[in-house]
Amino acid sequence: MPDMSLRFDVARLRTLGILPQSDRPPFDIIGDVHGCVEELRELLEQLGYTLSQPGPGEGHYQHPDGRRVVFVGDLIDRGPGNMAVLEIALAMRAASVCLQVLGNHDARFLRWLSGRNVRTTFGLAHTIAELNALPEHTREAMRRRIWRLFEDTPGYLILDEGRLVVTHGGIRDRMVGAWDGETASFCLYGDVEGYTHSGKPIRRDWGAHRHLPVAEDGATPEASAAPYIVYGHNVVQELRWVNRTIDLDTGCVYGGRLSALRYPELELVTVDANRAYAHRG
Fold first, then answer.
1. What pTM does this model have?
2. Beta carbons of 71 and 32 less than 8 angstroms apart
C-alpha cells in the first residue's frame, strides 16, 4: 500500500475534501448532468442503484454491492430538472453513497447563493427560477442545503490511494496534491489558451499533451505509475481514453448521452438523452 504521506500533505487535503476519509473503490463516475434528471435516474438504475425508500421525495439511491457515485460537476443549468438533480445528490451525500467535485456552473450558482453579482446566462437563470418556484416554506431551507453542498465540494478528488483522480475541467499531474489559484482555475475550466472574438474560450486538449512517466528502458511509458484522470466540462462525441485520461461529458443536455465510468472495471455505461434541452451556441 503506497504511503500517501510521502507524496501529499494528507491533513490539508483531508480538510479541503480532496482526499476523502473513504477513498476506496468501487465507484461509478458520472459525467455532466446539467439538470437532466430523467436521464440521471435511468443511468443510476442501469448501473444497479435502487431507491432505499421508493416514492417522491423519500430515500436515496444506493447500490447493493456498496458502490458509490462520483459526480464530475455541473449538476445544474440548461436542463429541466435542476432542483430534482440536486435533491438526488443531497440525499446520496447525506447517506455517504456519493462524492462530487465542483463544476464551473455549480461554482457560479454558489456565488449567486452567496449574494455575489453574477451573470445569469448559460442556464443559470433557469436554475434560479426553479429554486424561486419552490414553496416559500421550503425555499430557504433548500437554498441553505445547496449552499452547504457546493461550499463543501472540492475542486478535485484523489481516490484509490492515488490511482484515480476525478475533477471537472482537468488537472495537470504536478497539481495533484496542491491547491492554489492556478489549480482551482484549471480544475474548473481546463486549459484555456485564449478567447475568440465573440468571447468563447479556446481550450487546449490537455489530456493529449499529458506526459506519462517513462519506464527504466526509456522506451515505453510507465502507465502504471500515472493515475487515471476522469473529468468532464468539454462536450465530446465519443468516449475515448487519451494518456489515461477520459472526458465523460457526452452532451446529454444537448440531446447526446449521459455517461458513466465504472471503476476499477473501466467499463463505460451510457443512456441516450430523451431530447435536446438546450442548443450549443
1. 0.93
2. no
